């Protein structure tokens, strides 16, 4: 019988200058995985098993898990299209911390939908799946947005179009940029991080946001990467959200002294990231963040780049071991 494994990487939402419309996938340079995994096999009745480093922090009961909700949502969509499903057993390897700003819920959702779509012979195209993923992500965060699910699924850096299709556009990547990312160990609710933001912004702020995003997209396409880095500043969320992140200002100050190209909050936080021009610079900043930004034993740092590939679906073999971060 068919058995598959879907790996969905962590991601940076917003990438500082692109609130709700820009996102990027993450891949550690040491070759390790940083993301959630969903295994799918045939079964007589549906079941969900949760394992992994952060499984104990998930809501109790399979019915309360977002992966179970993905399964039922997928089955309903199949029924609407006149397609049959059969019961499956799912295993969620919950490797990303919850409320971390690393696209944790998006990673579980994307891995679940990718596994289900692959198992049932790919009935849905990419845009349709993205709409499903966005709908389920919205049930957790309180609003539909694609800045985590899109790069997690598609890889690279993605710009959200606001259209039904294509949902995203892929932006050029700079292969010489490295990202020192650090999860502090505390949890920040996406919904709470949105509630702290003002409901309206000043005209000058809106103009700055639009100008920065336009310059950034142009600069990436033109290969003017110094110009792109120069506008990676968050004028929408960071001024308010940084109050939720102990040590943020000190971490930014150190990164700037080390010559980082940019520094910001990943999604809603508390994870932060520094854009660096070399792996050595990223490693130095990651070591500082390890020693000064992390708040408890759950925290960790990684040096990453943005991968071209996103979610990977592969055959699941009997001797496959549980993925580890």
UniProtKB/TrEMBL annotation:
From the UniProt record, list the reaction(s) this protein catalyses.
L-homoserine + ATP = O-phospho-L-homoserine + ADP + H(+)
Keyword annotations of the record: Amino-acid biosynthesis, ATP-binding, Cytoplasm, Kinase, Nucleotide-binding, Threonine biosynthesis, Transferase
GHMP kinase N-terminal domain boundaries: 65-156
Tell me the superkingdom of the source: Bacteria
The GO terms this record gives for MF are: ATP binding; homoserine kinase activity
Pathway in which this enzyme or protein is active: Amino-acid biosynthesis; L-threonine biosynthesis; L-threonine from L-aspartate: step 4/5
Residues of the GHMP kinase C-terminal domain: 218-294
Spell out the subcellular localization from the entry.
Cytoplasm
BP terms from Gene Ontology: threonine biosynthetic process
Where mainly found? cytoplasm
* InterPro entries recorded: GHMP_kinase_C_dom (IPR013750), GHMP_kinase_C_sf (IPR036554), GHMP_kinase_N_dom (IPR006204), GHMP_knse_ATP-bd_CS (IPR006203), Homoserine_kinase (IPR000870), Ribosomal_Su5_D2-typ_SF (IPR020568), Ribsml_uS5_D2-typ_fold_subgr (IPR014721)
Q: Which Pfam families match?
A: GHMP_kinases_C, GHMP_kinases_N
Q: Does the entry feature the keyword Kinase, yes or no? A: yes
Q: Which residues bind ATP?
A: 97-107
The EC code for this enzyme is 2.7.1.39
Its EC top class is: transferase
Q: Name one GO cellular component term.
A: cytoplasm
The record ties this protein, via NCBIfam families, to: PRK01212.1-4, thrB
Q: What does this protein do?
A: Catalyzes the ATP-dependent phosphorylation of L-homoserine to L-homoserine phosphate.
Q: Into which family does the record put it?
A: Belongs to the GHMP kinase family. Homoserine kinase subfamily.
| Alphabetized PANTHER family for the sequence | HOMOSERINE KINASE (PTHR20861:SF1), HOMOSERINE/4-DIPHOSPHOCYTIDYL-2-C-METHYL-D-ERYTHRITOL KINASE (PTHR20861)
Q: What is this protein called?
A: Homoserine kinase
């Amino acid at each position: 019988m068919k058995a598959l494994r879907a790996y969905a990487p962590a991601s940076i939402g917003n990438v500082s200058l692109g609130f709700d419309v820009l996102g990027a996938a993450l891949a550690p340079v040491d070759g390790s995985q940083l993301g959630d995994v969903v295994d799918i096999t045939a079964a007589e009745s549906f079941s969900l098993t949760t394992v992994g480093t952060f499984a104990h922090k998930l809501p109790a009961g399979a019915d309360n898990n977002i992966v179970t909700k993905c399964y039922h949502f997928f089955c309903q969509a199949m029924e609407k299209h006149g397609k049959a499903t059969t019961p499956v057993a799912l295993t969620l390897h919950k490797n990303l911390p919850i409320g971390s700003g690393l696209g944790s819920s998006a990673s579980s959702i994307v891995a679940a939908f990718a596994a289900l779509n692959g198992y049932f012979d790919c009935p849905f195209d990419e845009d349709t799946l993205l709409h499903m993923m966005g709908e389920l992500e919205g049930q957790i965060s309180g609003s539909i947005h694609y800045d985590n699910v899109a790069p997690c699924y598609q890889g690279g850096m993605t710009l959200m179009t606001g259209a039904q299709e294509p949902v995203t556009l892929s932006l050029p990547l700079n292969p010489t940029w490295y990202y020192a990312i650090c999860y502090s160990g505390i949890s920040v609710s996406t919904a709470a991080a949105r509630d702290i933001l003002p409901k309206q912004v000043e005209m000058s702020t809106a103009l700055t946001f639009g100008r920065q995003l336009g310059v950034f997209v142009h600069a990436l396409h033109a290969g003017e990467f110094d110009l792109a880095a120069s506008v990676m500043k968050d004028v929408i969320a960071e001024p308010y959200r940084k109050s939720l992140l102990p040590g943020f200002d000190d971490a930014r100050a150190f990164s700037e002294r080390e010559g980082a190209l940019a520094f910001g909050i990943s999604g809603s936080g508390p994870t932060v990231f520094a854009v660096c021009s070399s792996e050595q610079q990223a490693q130095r900043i990651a070591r500082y963040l390890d020693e000064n930004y992390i708040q408890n034993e759950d925290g960790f740092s990684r040096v990453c780049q943005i991968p071209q590939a996103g979610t990977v679906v592969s055959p699941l073999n009997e001797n496959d071991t549980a993925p580890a971060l």
